[in-house]
């Protein structure tokens, strides 16, 4: 039964449903907010890039802890896995609390610093302060989901996501349209809806988390802190956090470039972000499931199975994301029409649909192999790969060609495509080298030899005693 929990299928389908519901949440959010105005959509898209950037600060700990939990469980060290989960929860809650205070206190200056257009600042202040003020909930929710998921229980976070989406959609509808007894508060209501749904989801995940391990987690366990295990978390986590930060901050920089090009370009990119999420949901679910599976196999010393798991993820993921991108190409204009009737925004969005067909396979390659390397703890390599490619190709070239030379959003999108393929193929070469897998095999061989040597003197003593 334990083995069945860690198959690619058993792990990936609940992750897909959870991510699909998150996508649905974002799509419904964008669709409903578009009924307020295109300016409101631009504020939500821009603000979410800011929130994503800030979440990397606690995702560093949560991501490292998740991989370590799967590795410890794979090596039959349940108590260590439990301690890692408790430590990560405490640390990320503290980081989330500090970020919440920051965003409540100075939302306006933060929006101005990020080049938010002046006409969007009043809406931005409200949205950033309310949703950003609840970043502590995002921190706790992210950590709990990651910990639960990496024990092999991917269904718990999935069911929680179902409930959170239902509550959020109902409240959004009420606040935007003044329906079912709610006041008509527009974008402020959307922000409150986001906050309340996340609070409820956090409480549900906390209830699941308490019983996740064989020994129930109690309030007194919050005093636990193991420095050695925390160092292990950070050894995996800090490069993982830098890698996440590279992506998020590069995207934030790119959104700033788009803001320079105009509100309509910014809104078009926000709508495309929503549609693109549909393309890689299945692929990302498989990549994330493979990461959990590889970490578990690696922790248990099953290096050959861990190596093959990454290729299985690619085998299933590449056709899926390509097919989804093609479907989006056929239906994209009609889908964009659900969000806006602005002809310029529609023209920009449609021009990017063909490019998305090239983007998604590269993104799948990068996700699957990058996550596989991270599962082994080879997060520094992934970090260096990201630092070079994202800042030189994705960000630097986007500014050069898109803004300085005036080639616009198409040039920026082309730079993002090149970045995905570059990082993907470099990661694939690293995976084929099997460095961490060979090191694990050598470590296991040393342990086997040491145990044999330790057994021999005992055997000789026993023979002498017998004689």
Automatic annotation (TrEMBL):
It comes from the Bacteria. Pfam families: MatE. GO terms for cellular component: plasma membrane. The chain crosses the membrane at residues 7-28, 50-71, 83-106, 126-147, 159-182, 188-213, 233-261, 281-299, 320-339, 345-362, 382-401, 407-429. Keywords: Cell membrane, Membrane, Transmembrane, Transmembrane helix, Transport. It is a multi-pass membrane protein. Its main location: membrane. It is found in: Cell membrane. GO terms for molecular function: antiporter activity; xenobiotic transmembrane transporter activity. The keyword Hydrolase does not apply. PANTHER family: MULTIDRUG AND TOXIN EFFLUX PROTEIN MATE FAMILY, NA+ DRIVEN MULTIDRUG EFFLUX PUMP. This is MATE family efflux transporter.
């Amino acid at each position: 039964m334990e083995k069945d929990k860690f198959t690619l299928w058993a792990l990936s389908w609940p992750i897909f449903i959870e991510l699909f519901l998150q996508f649905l949440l974002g799509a419904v959010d964008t669709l409903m907010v578009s009924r307020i105005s295109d300016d409101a959509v631009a504020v939500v898209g821009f603000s979410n890039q800011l929130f994503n950037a800030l979440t990397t600060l606690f995702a560093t700990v949560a991501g490292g802890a998740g991989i370590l939990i799967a590795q410890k469980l794979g090596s039959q060290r349940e108590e260590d896995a439990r301690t890692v989960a408790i430590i990560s929860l405490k640390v990320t809650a503290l980081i989330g609390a500090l970020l919440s205070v920051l965003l409540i206190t100075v939302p306006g200056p933060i929006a101005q610093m990020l080049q938010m257009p002046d006409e969007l600042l009043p809406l931005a202040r409200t949205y950033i302060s309310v949703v950003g003020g609840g970043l502590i909930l995002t921190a706790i929710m992210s950590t709990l989901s990651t910990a639960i998921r990496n024990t092999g229980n991917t269904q718990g976070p999935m069911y929680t996501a179902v409930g959170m989406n239902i509550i959020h959609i109902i409240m959004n509808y009420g606040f935007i349209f003044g329906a079912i007894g709610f006041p008509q508060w527009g974008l402020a209501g959307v922000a409150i809806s986001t906050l309340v749904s996340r609070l409820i989801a956090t409480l549900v995940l906390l209830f699941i988390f308490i019983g996740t391990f064989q020994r129930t987690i109690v309030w007194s366990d919050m005093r636990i802190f193991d420095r050695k295990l925390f160092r292990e978390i950070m050894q995996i986590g800090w490069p993982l956090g830098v890698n996440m930060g590279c992506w998020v901050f590069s995207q934030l920089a790119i959104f700033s470039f788009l803001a320079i090009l105009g509100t309509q370009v910014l809104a078009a990119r926000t709508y495309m972000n929503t549609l693109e999420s549909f393309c890689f949901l299945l692929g990302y679910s498989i990549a994330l499931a493979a990461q959990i599976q590889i970490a578990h196999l690696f922790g248990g010393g099953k290096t050959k199975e861990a190596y093959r798991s990454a290729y299985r993820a690619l085998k299933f993921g590449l056709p899926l994301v390509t097919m989804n991108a093609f479907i989006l190409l056929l239906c994209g204009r009609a889908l964009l029409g659900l969000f806006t009737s602005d002809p310029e925004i529609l023209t920009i969005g449609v021009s990017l649909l063909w490019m998305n067909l090239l983007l998604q396979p590269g993104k799948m390659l990068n996700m699957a192999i990058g996550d596989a390397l991270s599962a082994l703890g080879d997060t520094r390599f992934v970090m260096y790969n990201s630092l070079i490619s994202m800042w030189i190709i994705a960000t630097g070239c986007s500014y050069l060609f898109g803004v300085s030379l005036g080639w616009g959003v198409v040039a920026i999108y082309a730079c993002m495509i090149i970045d995905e393929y570059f990082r993907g193929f470099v990661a694939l070469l690293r995976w084929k080298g099997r460095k961490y897998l060979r090191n694990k095999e050598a470590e296991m061989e040393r342990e086997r030899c040491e145990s044999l040597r330790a057994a021999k003197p005992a055997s000789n003593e026993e023979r002498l005693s017998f004689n």
